[in-house]
Write a structure and sequence with these properties.
284 residues, 12 helices, globular
Length: 284
């Protein structure tokens, strides 16, 4: 039974990432059409401000059972997409708002999926299931890019929002059936850690290992944003939003499977030389 649930979770994650991958080129195209390549940097400020919504959402998540919260969040996002379709094409504010909203859509929906999956899988099952699920995510991102790349010139960018809304709504409808009561089917021996043994926030932030991880994340995000800006600056000259969406979608379809190759290539280096040597492969 656990295998069937893992298969269902894998399919659902592919569905989620497919919707996210579909909308990524669309959000870029909407902003480029409104601001042009030179003004594209402004959306990063909007994304940072919208990210503050994670704080109240975290407080809400602490009060609502995960089996109810995840489908509810997905249903709200599906309704949001239909609202964006109703007000399409909008203008500059519409494009910036959709760009920032997409960050919430991707971040919250993906995190909610894994939190929900964590309530279903025990530690042993999660260790074997999550690599398969993440690999399916790479496939889903490539499929989403291909859908946008080949369909945007045919049905238009506006109708891609409806397609993504349908995928998100299907996820919202099916995930409760997969989760059930949320009880893991196999519970290995687990050591319960008392609150007295938990580290304080100050101790966590003062840990050198945590500081190194945080610095690495900040550096990674900075590099990612610089590359993203250069990429969008280059594609701004391709034409209207349909043309930009089509190119970026096909580009995503051609590249989103590369993390699978990278993970397979980096695994021997991790086993032999550790994380430090593996990180040196990243610039390549």
């Amino acid at each position: 039974m656990i295998r069937s649930r893992v298969a269902a979770l894998t399919a659902l994650y592919l569905l989620v990432v497919c919707a996210v991958g579909m909308l990524h080129p669309v959000r870029n195209a909407l902003v480029l059409g409104a601001l042009g390549g030179q003004g594209f940097y402004k959306v990063y400020v909007a994304s940072a401000l919208v990210a503050l919504a994670v704080v109240p959402f975290g407080r809400l998540a602490a009060r609502v059972p995960q089996q109810r919260l995840t489908p509810a969040v997905a249903a709200v996002f599906a309704a949001n997409l239909l609202m964006f379709r109703a007000f399409f094409p909008g203008g500059m504010v519409f494009g910036i708002l959709f760009y920032a909203w997409h960050d919430l859509f991707a971040g919250i929906l993906v995190s909610q999926f894994f939190l929900a999956a964590n309530t279903l899988l025990d530690a042993r099952s999660a260790k074997s299931a999550f690599p398969v699920i993440v690999a399916a995510g790479s496939v889903g991102a490539a499929v989403g890019g291909a859908i946008t790349g080949f369909l945007s010139p045919i049905i238009g960018v506006a109708n891609l929002l409806v397609v993504a809304a349908v995928l998100t709504a299907v996820f919202a409808a099916v995930i409760p059936l997969v989760l059930g009561d949320g009880a893991p089917e196999v519970r290995p021996n687990v050591r319960i850690v008392s609150r007295a043994n938990q580290a304080s926030l100050r101790e966590v932030l003062g840990d050198r290992q945590v500081q190194l991880i945080a610095a690495t994340v900040v550096l990674t995000v900075l590099v990612k944003q610089l590359v993203d800006y250069q990429f969008n600056l280059a594609t701004a000259t391709l034409g209207d939003r349909e043309a930009i969406s089509a190119f970026q979608g096909k580009f995503a379809a051609a590249t989103q499977w590369l993390p699978l190759v990278a993970a397979a290539a980096i695994r021997p280096a991790l086993a032999r030389w550790g994380i430090g040597a593996a990180l040196l492969m990243l610039p390549a």
